[in-house]
Amino acid sequence: MKQVRVRFAGFRNTDDEWVNVKTDLRERSIPLEPAECHMVNVGDLVMSFQEKEEQSLYFDAHVVAIQRQDHDATECKCVFLVRYDHDNSEDEVQCSKLCRRPSE
Ligand SMILES: [Zn+2]
């Protein structure tokens, strides 16, 4: 069973929860690993974690721009500018807030 560690906005890391990717995250999205950030390109449809006051959720978003940085496989330092499909807002997020679609 594949699980990912989720940190809820506004809570400390001691409140992190492990969630089941299959049931708790939308199907067919894969958390982006730092070593995989080069697989994301401008124009790609991704899932991005949008933090709001009431709730924080993953939403469909398109990658508008990428500021790529040199880094190792353990920590991504790139900055991804995404535009959310549902409200057209733009946000600069890091790799840890993105899920990619599996390549066909
Ligand atoms: Zn990166």
TrEMBL record:
Query: What's the domain of life for this entry?
Result: Eukaryota
Alphabetically sorted, this entry's keywords are: DNA-binding, Homeobox
SAWADEE domain mapped to chain residues: 3-99
Single Gene Ontology MF annotation: chromatin binding
Please name the Pfam families in this protein's record: SAWADEE
Protein name, please? Protein SAWADEE HOMEODOMAIN
* Species this protein is from: Turnera subulata
